[in-house]
Amino acid sequence: MAGFVRELERRAGPALRLEQRAAGGVGCVVWDAALVLAKFLETGACPLARRHVLELGAGTGAVGIMAATLGANVTVTDLEELQELLMVNIENNKHLVTGSVRAKVLKWGEDVTEFQPPPDYILMADCIYYEESLEPLLKTLRELTGPDTCVLCCYEQRTVGKNPEIERKYFELLQRDFELEKIPLERHDEEYRSEDIHIVSIHRKHRVGAQHPGCFGLLGRDLKLLSFHPCHGQGHLALAWFMAPAQQLLPGIPRAAVCLAQREHSRGGAPD
According to the model, what pLDDT value does residue 228 have? Predict the structure, then answer.
């Protein structure tokens, strides 16, 4: 099948070369949220060396493969129809991997026994867009996470159609079993960031009185804890950060994908 390559520069060493597909579903291209999360991993905020990492809805595998270049032992997962693309990108970038990376089929809501014990990290980029997938995704998260698992969820805030309501429902359901922390924009990669692309760290709720260091240990004190109290009528207020209309946000820099396209054009490469 015809494809085209997106290069994702790394702070050290050659760029990742990620093949995309000209035809296919949403998993066949590298989305902006994947670029932002992959580059966030490079900041060193999360210790990845020798850690067990699982990526959900991996698509092209951009985020998981980046984690593998940082020393993590990664399993990138998606539906059966995306396995060939994942394996192509693993093969194309295997010389950059310092940990390990493999591709496996995982359909949300189905048995996760083969992915146990719980990983240290679960990575998700732009997995929130189909309402019918919310419950299966949440079931999978509940069954995959242990008390010390850190979930990093990166998503682009969208205001078209049902997207705002889907995002609201996702976070309302998520907070029943998990605690959420917004990672401030200044903690993102200094170039690959955008006001309407958010990274949230998520971990299982602990028993009353227990202290959880958050996904980032000492860095947790710099994160904004998002507390939800829908029973007290504060749910919509607490969710306001997630649902802020994009047109009210002032973009700090051009979108990550646009930056890459401009760089490729300046080097004489064909734009994506």
Answer: 34
